[in-house]
Design brief:
There is one protein chain. The protein contains seven helices and ten strands. By secondary structure, it is an alpha/beta fold. It has one domain: Zn peptidases (Aminopeptidase), CATH 3.40.630. An eight-stranded mixed sheet has the order 1-2-4-3-5-10-6-9, sandwiched between helices. It has a two-stranded antiparallel ribbon with strand order 7-8. A hairpin with a 2-residue loop joins strand 7 and strand 8. Helix 1 packs parallel to helix 2. The longest helix has 22 residues. The structure holds zinc ion. The site of zinc ion has 4 residues, from loops.
Length: 258
């Protein structure tokens, strides 16, 4: 059974995102094609010099509405602190979100299109990323309708060593954690999956179909990275709270690490 929860009102959410972003000093760019908006991008440089750079992306899968709503809520409540250089991609797949389906309107899973991109959405995203300086941390937001709670993918790096446990401990206070020993065919412990690939280019699980997180890592665009998964069988406020807690904890850890 696929996700049967609420469909995101994409037009209304984009209007509110742009308004909230402008209200709090973010620049808003929307790369547009004939089919409509394909990639809204919100940026705000820090007022501090040498500030850490944080990348947040969500709305990659159209049946995962909590991520865009979480970004909107953080913006409206002014939770993006000024000591970080922010780049936000709040809706990587607006067409899929309108349809409440994982893939885009062409039926393509965008999160398998980052090795040799063919979709307009991913081509636009990758072209933008390639023009930017690297980020210190990428926080990639998804949802999983099959999970029994929140979990995360921890890409082990020197910068983020040990952070995953702290993030899970904080999220546990607002949302159950998926304690399964295997999630999505990968071994998991206390809600943490640490994927290890011997050779990413040859790995049969990736089959040449790179997700966003692997692309960012392989092109050395990020120093550290987490992917957060909210349980979409839970109510929306709990999912949003879980994701917000994970984001704010990561940023707090980054701020104290620098
Ligand atoms: Zn997803």
């Amino acid at each position: 059974m696929p996700y049967t929860g609420e469909t995101l009102d994409v037009t209304a959410t984009l209007l509110r995102l742009n308004q909230a972003a402008r209200d709090h000093g973010f620049s808003c760019v929307s790369l547009v094609d004939q089919a409509g908006i394909i990639l809204p991008i919100l940026t705000r440089p820090s007022t501090y010099s040498n500030a850490p750079r944080v990348y947040i992306s969500t709305g990659m899968h159209g049946d995962e509405p909590a991520g865009p709503l979480m970004i909107l809520d953080l913006l409206e409540r002014e939770q993006f602190c000024p000591n970080i250089d922010w780049t936000l991609f709040p809706m990587l797949n607006p067409a899929g979100l309108r349809l409440n389906q994982r893939e885009n309107h062409m039926g393509i899973d965008l999160n398998r299109d980052y090795l040799n991109p063919t979709t307009k959405e991913v081509i636009a995203h990758v072209n933008y990323i390639e023009e930017q300086e690297p980020w210190d941390l990428s926080l990639i937001i998804h949802e999983d309708w099959e999970s029994d709670g929140f979990y995360l993918y921890d890409k082990p790096t020197d910068l983020t060593d040990g952070w995953a446990k702290t993030i899970v401990e904080r999220v546990r206070k607002v949302c159950p954690i998926d304690l399964s020993e295997a999630i999505d065919k990968m071994s998991s412990s206390e809600g943490i999956i640490s994927p290890r690939f011997e050779n990413i280019k040859e790995d049969p699980k990736l089959k040449g179909q790179w997700p966003e997180a692997i692309y960012l890592f392989m092109t050395e665009k990020v120093r550290g990275s987490f992917t957060f998964e909210a349980p979409s069988s839970y109510d929306m406020p709990t999912r949003i709270k879980a994701l917000e807690t994970a984001i704010l904890t990561s940023v707090e850890l980054l701020s104290t690490a620098e």
